[in-house]
Amino acid sequence: MRGTRITTVAVYERRIRASVERIFENALDWERLPGLHRDSFASVRRTDSGDWGWSAWVRGAPGAREMALQLVIDRAGRSYVIATIEGPGKGSEIHTSLVPKADDETQIRMEFRVPDVSPERAAALGEAYRTLYARMWDEDEAMMLRRARLQAVLRVPVPQGRLELGPVTELRSKLPQVVEWAGRPWRIVELDGALVVHAGICPHALGPLETTPLEGSVVECPWHRYRFDVRTGKSCDGRGLRLASAPRIEVAPDGRAQLVQAR
Description:
Blueprint lengths: L5 E11 L3 H8 L15 E8 L2 E7 L6 E9 L4 E8 L6 E10 L2 E11 L3 H36 L7 E6 H7 L2 E5 L2 E8 L2 E6 L18 E3 L6 E3 L18 E4 L4 E5 L3
Antiparallel strand pairs: 1-7, 2-3, 3-4, 4-5, 5-6, 6-7, 8-15, 9-10, 10-11, 12-13, 14-15
């Protein structure tokens, strides 16, 4: 901006256990902001998006004013910029550069640039930026690692068979219980006296449904807030996705429970 002094108030660097391409994929995921980063963002309203990046109106906290953000990717330059183009912080930019260190490891460097800020305010603002993005990168890295692991697992078909669960009375006493079968998490819950098994992987982006509390029979993915009825696997938010078919529970005459793979 002409006549405006731009100050770099902070620099943040770290290594992320993900490839440059996976980090670009993560950066393009505007929808994760009020889900995965719910402690930092209250809402997001996308106005445009594409391979180039995205623009959206974003609210940082309930009751706060919205700000218009735009993220633009430079794949050739292995970098991207997030600019505040309207609202609080207008004119601020966050420049992120990516340097590959291994197949699944990338060095990131972020520069936080703010217009017309006093030296005293710059120090406090810089520390706030570093604290915010350290937490957000922790959350993003955990998401990217889970996705990479499950993408590899899901390429292998689930073998037919049975999984022993032990006496059904003991099983009921431990509910809800997460079990892993062929690398995939499943959760067993009790609803109205019936044992129900549901997939622990969100079909949208492989988010963690196995540890998310139920609201009645509904589970909401903490990453992107997709909602499903665990009894049927059907979408509860009109977005048309469905949980993977779950194995069923069979109880033998001796009272021992087994998971039986759905055909």
